[in-house]
Specification:
The chain is α+β, with helices and mostly antiparallel strands and 347 residues long. The chain contains eleven helices and ten strands. It has a ten-stranded antiparallel sheet, with helices on both faces. Strand 9 and strand 10 form a beta hairpin. The radius of gyration is 21 Å and the shape is globular.
């Protein structure tokens, strides 16, 4: 519940400034000029941009991590992290700073057991790309909530995709599965018929499928499903294992995401926050219904749908200041630098 609230809070913060219109909505400008505006003097990493396109358009947030630059970031952050107070919310960060490499830091933040993380078959010379917060809904404001199957008593899981570059995809799948199985149980039915693939159920709400691909392993993560039964859950997840490629519209934010000198980069697609927020609200409604008597469920469902629809209708592009937003973190001679880029609608 806490994670869902944090997601909604972050969503509303970004939406206060950003456009929730559909991807590809552009101001009344010449297309060639828009393409030129998106160009940058710094060469873009075409591998990153190709991976973003291959992952599709559903992610509300796209992240890029460059492991080769982790050492420089670790050194720059070390003095600052040492001054953090010993407060419970910050202890995971304090532990993460002891990690010697990026996998160790990510494992610590994910709550995995301490110690070195062996990832045989991983290629740390290439960036990791993740698409976060994918739900299978789209449309104009007001069209997502009616399509949520809440009246049938279920809501599908949110999906995240992570592309991890590999020198040997099969070996990397085994390494990742070994790390994850310390926290869960194998679930071979999810990846049945997929050569070399593995799947692990981490807990009651999270499942990870590891799919070997050309030069990489694509991890597909499902979270927070409320499904009528295990068979329906399995069928839905199997139907969502494949990515749906879609070429993104060229914007300054996308150009910044592809610049190769950043340790980490993030690209927010506000038009995807609307269905993600509706989905998160739907999960909360169903969880609330499970705590009340049968006599209270109908009015609670009606009120929940009213709130979700009203919130969705507020998430329009009227009064928006930004179409999309990207930020990067670079290390320049020990100095941390943040850069941002966005496209401002012409009103």
């Amino acid at each position: 519940m806490l994670r869902t609230r944090a997601l909604l809070a972050a969503t509303m913060l970004v939406l206060s400034a950003c456009n929730c219109g559909k991807e590809g909505e552009t101001p009344a400008a010449d297309g060639a000029a828009a393409q030129a505006e998106a160009a940058s003097a710094v060469p873009r990493d075409q591998t990153v941009l190709a991976t973003v396109a291959a992952l599709g358009h559903e992610g509300a947030l796209v992240l890029v991590l460059r492991p080769q630059q982790w050492t420089a970031l670790h050194q720059a952050l070390d003095a600052w992290l040492a001054r953090l107070p010993d407060a419970e919310p910050l202890r995971a960060i304090q532990r993460a700073k002891e990690a010697k490499d990026l996998p160790g830091m990510l494992a610590t933040l994910a709550g995995l057991p301490p110690g070195p993380v062996a990832l045989d078959g991983w290629d740390p010379t290439r960036p990791i790309v993740a698409s976060v917060g994918e739900v299978p809904y789209d449309g104009v404001p007001g069209s997502v909530t009616p399509n949520l199957p809440l009246l049938d008593g279920w809501v599908p899981p949110v999906r995240h995709q992570v592309v991890v570059p590999a020198s040997d995809p099969t070996t990397l799948v085994g390494s990742l599965a070994a790390v994850l199985q310390g926290r869960g149980e194998p679930w071979p039915a999810l990846v049945s018929g997929r050569e070399g693939a593995r799947a692990v159920q981490l807990d009651g709400t999270t499942v990870v499928a590891l799919l070997p691909e050309t030069g990489a392993v694509r991890a597909v993560i499902f979270q927070s499903a409320v499904m009528p039964d295990e068979a329906a859950r399995l069928e839905h997840m199997r139907s969502r294992l494949e990515a749906e490629p879609a070429e993104p519209t060229a914007t300054p934010a996308l150009s910044l995401l592809g610049q190769p000198d950043a340790v980490a980069a993030g690209w927010v697609r506000p038009w995807r926050l609307r269905p993600l927020s509706a989905w998160a609200g739907g999960v909360q409604v169903l969880r609330a219904l499970a705590t009340v008597s049968s006599a209270q469920r109908t009015p609670l469902m009606a009120r929940g749908l009213q709130i979700l629809l009203g919130t969705e209708l507020l998430m329009t592009d009227e009064g928006s200041e930004l179409d999309d937003l990207a930020m990067t973190l670079t290390v320049d001679d020990g100095v941390l630098r943040l850069r941002s880029a966005s496209r401002t609608p012409w009103r």
